[in-house]
Design goal:
The chain has about 230 residues and is α/β, with parallel strands linked by helices. About 40% of the residues lie in helices and about 15% in strands. Helix 9 links the parallel strand 6 and strand 7. The termini are far apart.
Length: about 230
C-alpha cells in the first residue's frame, strides 16, 4: 500500500508539483510546504528568548500585554515576503498551518514562553473572508495549536466594521481606522483567561492594539501577541 501511495504521489507530482512556499522550487518527498533549504535559512527572530524584544517594546505605553513575539523577520524581497504572499493571495492556507506548527515548536523550546489558555486569531471581516476563502491568521493559529496543545477560539473576537486597507497609513491613521472595528461575541467564554492573539505580520501593531483594547474592555483577560513575521 505504501508503494502504491508513493507511486501515485510521484505520478501526480509530474502534473501538479508541490512547490516550496518560500522559494517556489519543487518539494522532495518528506518536505511539507517548505523545502529544507529554506527551512534552515529562514530569518528567525528568536524573540521568544528575549522578554524585552522589539515586539514587546512596540506596545510599551500603548496597551498592557503579558508577552509578545514573532517567528520571522520580514524584509521586502526576502523569502518571508514570498511566504506571506503565498499564504494570503495564492490560496495556500496549509502553508500557514505548517508555519504555525513550526513556530509553536520553537516556542516550546523557550524557557520564558508562558503557554496561553486559548488562541484567538485576528479576525477578518465576513466580506473579506468570503473573498479570500479563509483567514490566514486562523490557519496560523491552527498550526500553533497542534504544537502548543491550546484550543483555538476563532468565533469569539469578530470584526464588526469593514475598514479601509492599512497599507501606506501612518500608525495613528491606522489606529483611527480601526476604532470600534472589533467586538467580543461571548466575553464570558474568556473570563479570567490568558489569551494569545495571533496575526500574520506585525507592522505598526495598530490592528493588534485595537483587538487588545476590545478584549480587555469586554472580557477580563491577559493578552499576549504573536505573529508569523515582524516588519521593522
Amino acid at each position: 500500500m505504501d508503494i502504491l501511495t508513493t507511486f501515485l504521489r510521484d505520478f501526480f507530482g509530474l502534473f501538479f508539483p508541490q512547490l516550496c512556499g518560500a522559494c517556489g522550487k519543487n518539494l522532495y518527498p518528506g518536505e511539507v510546504e517548505i523545502c529544507l533549504a529554506c527551512l534552515y535559512s529562514l530569518p528567525k527572530t528568536n524573540f521568544h528568548k528575549d522578554v524585552e524584544n522589539k515586539v514587546v517594546k512596540q506596545f510599551w505605553g500603548r496597551v498592557p500585554i503579558k508577552q509578545a513575539g514573532a517567528f520571522l523577520h520580514f524584509r521586502k524581497g526576502n523569502r518571508v515576503q514570498h511566504l506571506l504572499h503565498n499564504i494570503k493571495y495564492n490560496k495556500r492556507p496549509e502553508l500557514a498551518v505548517r508555519m504555525g506548527e513550526l513556530y509553536g515548536q520553537e516556542l516550546l523550546k523557550s524557557g520564558t514562553f508562558i503557554r496561553p489558555d486559548v488562541l484567538i486569531p485576528v479576525p477578518l471581516h465576513p466580506k473579506k473572508l468570503k473573498s479570500r476563502g479563509y483567514n490566514q491568521s486562523a490557519c496560523l493559529a491552527e498550526g500553533l495549536s497542534k504544537s502548543l496543545g491550546c484550543l483555538v477560539l476563532d468565533n469569539v473576537l469578530k470584526r464588526a466594521l469593514f475598514t479601509e486597507t492599512q497599507t501606506k497609513k501612518s500608525r495613528f491613521a491606522r489606529y483611527e481606522n480601526l476604532q470600534d472595528a472589533f467586538e467580543v461575541a461571548t466575553p464570558e467564554e474568556l473570563e479570567g483567561k490568558h489569551v494569545l492573539l495571533v496575526d500574520d505580520v506585525i507592522t505598526t501593531g495598530a490592528t493588534l492594539e485595537a483587538c487588545i483594547v476590545t478584549l480587555q474592555e469586554k472580557a477580563r483577560v491577559q493578552v499576549s501577541v504573536c505573529a508569523l513575521a515582524f516588519a521593522e
